Amino acid sequence: MSRATKSQEKQYKEILAQVAPPRPILRNCVAAFLVGGAICALGQVVLSYFLMKGMPKADASSATSIVMVFLGAFLTGLGVYDKLGPIAGMGAALPITGFANSIVAPAMEFKREGYVLGIAARMFTVAGPVLVFGTLTSFVAGIIS
User: Which sequence spans correspond to the domains of the chain?
Assistant: First the structure.
């Protein structure tokens, strides 16, 4: 199979531009802002609750992260997060609840393949590279400073 020529690629892009529906950029931005803001506001409510109960700030921050990861995983298990993603985009994916979703969703998808080859092997397919490169970047930044 031969590669497409520059003119064929240009024609394809022109046809695609005519046929493809316009992207609702403003709606997407507003939805991401509102959903991401709601998730962060919920996190702030949880943090304020822990602080109100007298928990030290460092412990309250850790507990808040745990609660938010649990909520993200739980909502993924119920199928709510899968419906929220296409509507909210990065507003749902960027907070820590989106990280929980990126681990739980592949694990649920491949659970029929067994615990080892399904859940354990596929659990970090999305989040694994993020963890590896985040750790590596932190290490390099620590050495530089």
Answer: 25-144
